[in-house]
Structure formats: C-alpha cells, structure tokens
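B., you asked whether I could sanity-check this one before it goes into the benchmark set. Here's the sequence:
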Amino acid sequence: MELSDLKTMLQIKDNKRDDILNLIIKNTTQALSFKLGLKDGVSIPDVLDYIALEVSVKRYNRLANEGMSSYTQEGQSITFSANDFDEFANDIDAWKDENGVKDNNSGRFLFI
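And here's what the prediction gave me:
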C-alpha cells in the first residue's frame, strides 16, 4: 500500500500527517501479514492490498478515540468494530485456502 493512496482516500493534500500515516500503514500491513500467515519479508499480495488500505482508513478515523467501542457527541453516534479486519475475514480465509496456508490453532502444553 502506498502513502499516496491513503492520503487520497482521506483527502489529505499536505505532508503534515505523513509520520502518523506511515506508522498506521506499517502497523496495518504487519497485522495483515500476520493474519495471512506470511513469513517475514514476504509482501502482502497485490490482490489483498485493498484490505490494508481500508483498515488504515478506519484506523486513521479512529485517532483520538482509541480504546472506545462507541462515541456519541451532539446526537451523532459512532460505533467502532472490535477488530478492524472482521469484515475482511472471508477474503482473508479464502486467500489462505487458495494458497495452502493453514491456521495453527493447536497448542502444546508442557507439564512439569
């Protein structure tokens, strides 16, 4: 995902917020890479780049409201999803199925 794409989506024309936008991009792409089961150094497939962009927009719009599940002011109410990736879960799962990525939900216990 490119900084310019995120700025276009957010209608930001200056460079004043580039540091926070780049951090949002970094964190979002790391989280998506983890959810996709990608190894370090492997890029997010172009076909799923839209997820990183959409989640980055959500994350930016939630700035100053971190940790809140909802926000109400002067009759306007906003509800935040518990997980920004929830609406993309089917797409992520489909990509993982098509690419043979298995979830490792098994655990190991060591009894001493």
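One thing to flag: The two ends are 47 Å apart (CA to CA). Otherwise nothing jumped out at me.
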